[in-house]
Amino acid sequence: QRPRARLFSTRSFSLKPKQTTTTPPTHGYRGWPGRQSRQQRHQHATDMASSSNPKSAGRVLLPPHINPIRYDLKFVPDFENFTFAGHTTIELSTSAALDSGDGDGDGGLDRNSITMHAKELCFSTASYVVVEDATDDGDGDGTTTANEEEKCEVEEIRVNKKSTTVTFVFGKALPANSTLILTIEYTGFLNNQMAGFYRSSYTDIHGKSKIMASTQFESLDARRAFPCWDEPARKSIFGVTLTVPKHMDAFSNMPELSNKTLPGGTTKEIAYLDTPVMSTYLVAFCIGEFDYVQAQTSHGVLVRVYTPPGKSDAGVFALDCATKSLDAYDDFFDIPYPLPKLDMVAIPEFAMGAMENWGLVTYREVDLLIDPTKASSNQKQRVCTVVTHELAHQWFGNLVTMTWWDDLWLNEGFASWAENWAADVVYPDWGMWDQFTTGHLSSAMRLDALK
Fold first, then answer.
1. Cis peptide preceding 200, ω within 30 of 0
2. Dihedral class, residue 226 (left if φ above 0, else alpha if ψ from -120 to 50, else beta)
3. What's the rounded Cα separation, in Å, for the pair 304 and 407?
4. Residue 397's closest CA among 281, 260, 252, 272?
């Protein structure tokens, strides 16, 4: 069983560096003591999900009386048929509101069902068991046991394509104020739409056609890979396990926990350490053949840039930008980068410029890989600012997250400012703030002048 990660709390930041009066969070990760109980985490998620903000009209938000605590995700991709098998186990917390549900679907809660986000997934089985605390010291860290004899099997699976949800209907009511372990088996598609868990094709240095798989979950596409509460405010811990061809590399948000060759010798199973508490859209994994270059920041974080085979030299410039800017952000926020590693991966087919998955940032190749001896100043600045932009999100967006996507401007507005700040720290001779004034600021003022 994976060691449980320590957790971050939601908190806000000042733009002033080195705030010596900052109060450490009540619970943390990588050295910050303390841990939230299940009840505290459930109450926080319930408060977020049950917001009465009128802006929530029209959103497909899931009921707040059931909340995820942690996911264990297992994927077995099939690169011949472009499908994958999924096995998801979710630790859930139910609220006292279930006691008031009448189960008739008319004004009360349906106590017999669990509804989740899902898209383009084919479900085969689902069941849950009730968890019993073997020890209860009040901190939510006691050992737990599940009563397999009381396993409740699903009786009906309802898929709603319009709302991209799936509802599992059981034969008896869900217990209130309880912890459940929900297990789901399903299959999905390695699509070619550059969304969810998808495939990319490329030609290697020998002229051979190759296939790799990667993820793009922002904003609403984690549900294409696994059934989940696909809302930014519904944060959880994630454990990921991948079964892949033995000749391929595979990596996720966190470092490897174990790596073993399976019977037959053609595949291997890689399990990864638990993530901190985070949103579903930040879960990521990549599978394929890669080269890499690596370095370590002065604060001890291992940084790697993964490239297609034979192109590792093109990742050196981005690697230098990342290691220096990561240290700069550490000092600026006065909060250490919370993960033990940072991977940056060049994806052949990628819809975005880049994506800030926590600990595994994915990029369009042109925004990560360049030859610094031949690249123009504009190309260097482009790669540098894309890297510094995504690394700013490791704090502002990943550690602190907006409740819903209509506040995405909070993430992007700060990162758009921070990319210039960090680039100016790393390469002060570029005059980034002079360019900011004549470029971004002037453009904004021209737009304002039209009003």
1. no
2. beta
3. 31
4. 281
φ, ψ for residue 283, nearest 5 deg? -65, 140
For 31, counting Cβ atoms within 10 Å of its Cβ (0-12 exposed, 13-18 middle, 19+ buried), the class is exposed
Q: What is the pLDDT of residues 309-354, one digit of tens each?
A: 999 999 999 999 999 999 999 999 999 999 999 999 999 989 889 9
The DSSP call for residue 424 is H
Inter-helix orientation angle 377-392/408-426, to 10°: 130
Chain-centre distance for alpha carbon 332 = 24
- The helix, strand and coil proportions of the chain, stated in percent and rounded to the nearest 5, come to 25, 35, 40
Amino acid code (one letter) for 10: T
Residue type, 270: I
Residue 349 designated active-site: no
Q: What b/e sequence results for 96-114 when a residue is b if at least 16 CB atoms lie within 10 Å of its CB, and e otherwise?
A: ebbeebeeeeeeebbbbbb
CA distances from 163 to 119, 152, 330 (A): 9, 26, 40
pTM reported for the whole predicted model: 0.85
Cβ atoms of 134 and 211 closer than 8 Å = no
What tokens were used for 138?
């009040």
- Of 40-49, 73-82, 172-181, least confident by mean pLDDT is 40-49
Residue 436 main-chain phi, psi, to 5 deg: -60, -40
Query: Burial code of 40-67, b = ≥16 C-beta within 10 A, e = fewer?
Result: ebbebbbebbeeeeeeeeeeebbbbbbb
| 72: Cα separation from own chain's centroid | 13
Contact predicate 98/109, CB 8 Å: yes
Q: Are 188 and 83 spatial neighbours (Cβ–Cβ below 8 Å)?
A: yes
Q: Please, is 304 exposed, middle or buried when counting C-beta atoms within 10 Å of its C-beta (0-12, 13-18, 19+)?
A: buried
* Contact between residue 194 and residue 216 where contact means Cβ atoms under 8 Å apart: yes
Q: Do residues 236 and 71 lie in contact, with contact meaning Cβ atoms separated by under 8 Å?
A: yes
Contacts of 175 (CB under 8 A, 6+ apart): 94, 98, 130
Whether 67 and 233 have beta carbons less than 8 Å apart is answered as no
* Mean pLDDT of the region 272-294: 98
Please tell me which residue in 120, 231, 390, 419 is annotated as part of the active site.
390
Q: How far apart are CA 30 and CA 7, in angstroms?
A: 9
Which residue is associated with the tokens 């600045």?
381
Q: Helices (H) and strands (E) in the chain — how many of each?
A: 6, 20
Convert the pLDDT of each residue in 51-86 to its tens digit.
455 666 668 899 999 999 999 999 999 999 999 999
User: Would you give the DSSP letter of residue 189?
Assistant: E
The region that residue 241 occupies, defined by phi over 0 for left and psi between -120 and 50 for alpha, beta otherwise, is beta
Residue type present at position 193: Q
